[in-house]
Design brief:
Elements: H1 3-7, H2 16-23, H3 27-36, E1 38-39, E2 42-43, E3 48-50, E4 53-55, H4 58-67
Antiparallel strand pairs: 1-2, 3-4
Helix pairs in contact: 2-3
Length: 114
Amino acid sequence: MNDEQGSRAYRRKLSTPEAAAYIGLGESTLNKSRVTKSVGSTPAPPYIKLGARVLYDPADLDQWLAQNKRRSTSDVKRWSEHDGPSLEEQAPAARSDGRDSGSEAGSCPTAGKR
């Protein structure tokens, strides 16, 4: 077998229950994602339709997972090493009233009151 044949070697495809377990989602979530074309605000993972059968390629699922990596829950885009400074390296955002957004004493009027 040469390198070209080895790189195109058959890789077993996964059924919906297997794919759901592989990526950590529920089977019903994957079923719904094929109709809505999304998982929440994320595009649904690609699938293969053969007659009535639905299959998922593990390589496609790996790529889908990689494309949806985030560094924090507030990230709205895919993270990569080339996206600039980490969240820890970024300066704190300024508040609209001009005060620092830090956690200095007295910044919360109800702090410590019960």
